[in-house]
DNA sequence: GATGAATGAGGATTCATTCAT
DNA sequence: GATGAATGAATCCTCATTCAT
């Protein structure tokens, strides 16, 4: 029971001004992280981006890592929120898939920079990595259940493992969202969403999907495969 | 007439021993990066991991970044090599797809740690990021051509944009390879390769693929879609 | 069993040069502490006093506190060593007392600055405070046993509690040693040792001590005490 | 005619409430210093301990050092006051000695933490160190005069230097008072006062002191010293 | 070549003090 | 007066790089 010399955790601001400064720091932290990356994420840079002196940083955050936690929670929360806030009125499975992919794509687009940084840079911080895993789990779990329901309704290929399929197709969307920003591909959002949805639907053999016609014509084709499936 | 006081660029080692030390440093650098991440990637840690003294590091490399370049080139080279060194004797498109996916999965499995780290950590270093892009381009380009050939042969859905499809499906494999190590999913390699290949094949509507039977039965199903495509 | 990101404890120097630098830093640390006090005891100041750059400080010590530990152990070790290295040939108790007091006085004179600083300044560091207590215990314990032997031999007042008496008289010597440096008293060492020894001897009623004559004449004095024992 | 831009020296509080806040800050400062030491003695910690906001601190004190001065003066004043406020009705020198020691012990017990802290921590602040010296001087001077009077009255050993003796015995009491709190000795106040007084009395050969009988029997003892005066 | 000690710019953090409300 | 947010000089520490042996 030795007296602990703990640094007093910064108290939440009591005044409006304080709250505004604090929020500005979290926002600035996110922007620095997204735009300048890990190495630029210093208290000084963040404070400057927020327009306050770096001493002020420590009025609100215990450390650089403390701010990182707040930034990640903010990004994660926003991402999950944008998924939950779905009207979801349509009844058509394919239309729902399109809508879902569009939201996922957008959400990852905003969040991917920060979340991937965390996925690797904050190797030592298990708590943060956990947040990233939870987000993935949220989406994969939901897609898994969705696929199960489709299979049960006879609307999707019942031979596929629901979880692994959901993981793979979710991975596709996630990685495309990420690649969009680093590659300079010319595809616009609509085109991407369209393709992702069609690929997803065909992959699980969704009944009523756009490319079903091609697939259904399969038996008519008597030709033997003669070209490469892959160019290697 | 002042002589330039340039740092003597480390000469390539002339002796066998020198080459061995140099290779040990590159290998150690890769392992440190893979296992301990960015923050542990210091000349000191790498030298220690290679079993040489700190000073020796600078006998072979100009700087920390110099080593990083060598590590990345080593990883990238190995990855491309493993793809090119394929006998490729089979003629069946699906079998080729399976083989290709297996190799891609394995290659990314090994390389993904380093390449993703580079993708973000070395934001400032254009040369490095270029290497990562080139690797992706290599695979996406190849898959694009493969898909084109299949479409031309009437073996794949011709309505899909070849490049975007290749990008999306390649992304799927890449991201699953990455997720395997961070998530603790119970799937073994064979199962993953099997699913990825089937999903890929169904997605492009490959003739002769395992799940074609399900897809072909589509017209028989008169049912209206009534379940969610996705659980959101 | 999460991987600990522990700072590698600086390895002991392997070369002569390294050992010399390290020793110079410990010595400089002690001098800074003695001459400029707590607030000047910074890695930078110590490094400068030792004639090296402040980066070198961290080649040998983990932190400011790490150096402090070394300094204190060095001071404490030296103090105990100077006490143990005693020829101790005399047989006369009073002569032994004088010799003992002289050594104690000298030892504290050198050590008191550092040890008192630790006694208070390093409030949080229990390990350091323990060292100070051990030193006191060493002296008090020894004096306690010495007094017991004298009492048993009929050479000292048997009514005194040995431990409390040893503590009190040891305290006297310790505090006088300290006061010497802060006050500008004109007393030289011989005079101080002489008085401390006589006071100590008289206090315990040591037979054969210099002031015994006065005490023995007590019964001759029939006068009633009429003056103050203390001026308050 | 530029107006001097001096910091407005905090005015002594005019209102009752103001005085109370100010006193609370001084008291809190003392408590923080005594219980948590130098490193915790910050305006923020003191303000918090006093139950006021950080900013208020500077309403009453120019600086941290300003408060320290007030705290030290408060402690010193209280210590001196407790000595002066002595009825001092007894006539017996030994009884007076006991009473004096009891008061000194108690006073140092309370004051020693702060005064020792000042003795070292405020090495640069001559004014503060002066206060500590003055307190010692007050006690030593008084004891010196008391001893002189006893010697003149033939009640104490005339061979002792009055000042050095007073310093030594005063040091004994002071250091025992300090050691009481840091060591976990089981001695209660009465026992300590009793021993200190008897040691003090015997040391100066005070006529009529409790242990005089032992001392007076000295001539009867013909034995030669044969045991150690000290265990070293 | 190899070694490991030395260097110091740079980054994180603290905290006494000032200032706007 | 009281409040608590804002400030930035000062300090501890890290680590890529250089250098003497």
TrEMBL record, chains A, B, C, D:
Report whether DNA-binding shows up as a keyword of the record: yes
Q: Name one Pfam family in it.
A: TetR_N
UniProt keyword annotations, A-Z: DNA-binding, Transcription, Transcription regulation
Report the DNA-binding ranges.
42-61
Keyword Acetylation present in the record's keywords: the answer is no
Which residue windows are transmembrane per the record? none
The segment(s) forming the HTH tetR-type domain are 19-79
Question: Which superkingdom is the protein from?
Answer: Bacteria
Q: What is this protein called?
A: TetR/AcrR family transcriptional regulator
Q: Which organism is it from?
A: Streptomyces cinnabarinus
């Amino acid at each position: 029971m030795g007296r602990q010399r703990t640094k007093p955790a910064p108290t939440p601001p009591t005044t409006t001004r304080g709250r505004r400064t604090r929020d500005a720091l979290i926002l600035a932290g996110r922007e620095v992280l997204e735009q300048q990356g890990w190495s630029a994420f210093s208290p000084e840079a963040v404070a400057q981006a927020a327009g306050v002196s770096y001493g002020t940083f420590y009025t609100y955050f215990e450390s650089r890592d403390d701010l990182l936690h707040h930034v990640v929670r903010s990004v994660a929360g926003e991402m999950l929120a944008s998924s939950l806030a779905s009207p979801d009125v349509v009844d058509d499975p394919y239309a729902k898939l399109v809508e879902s992919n569009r939201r996922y794509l957008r959400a990852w687009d905003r969040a991917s920079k920060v979340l991937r940084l965390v996925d690797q840079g904050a190797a030592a911080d298990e708590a943060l990595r956990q947040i990233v895993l939870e987000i993935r789990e949220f989406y994969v779990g939901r897609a898994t259940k969705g696929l199960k329901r489709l299979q049960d309704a006879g609307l999707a290929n019942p031979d596929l493992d629901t979880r692994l399929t959901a993981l793979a197709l979710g991975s596709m969307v996630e990685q495309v969202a990420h690649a969009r920003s680093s590659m300079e591909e010319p595809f616009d959002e609509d085109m991407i969403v369209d393709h992702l949805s069609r690929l997803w639907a065909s992959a699980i053999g969704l009944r009523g999907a756009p490319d079903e016609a091609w697939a259904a014509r399969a038996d008519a084709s008597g030709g033997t495969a003669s070209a490469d499936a892959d160019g290697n």
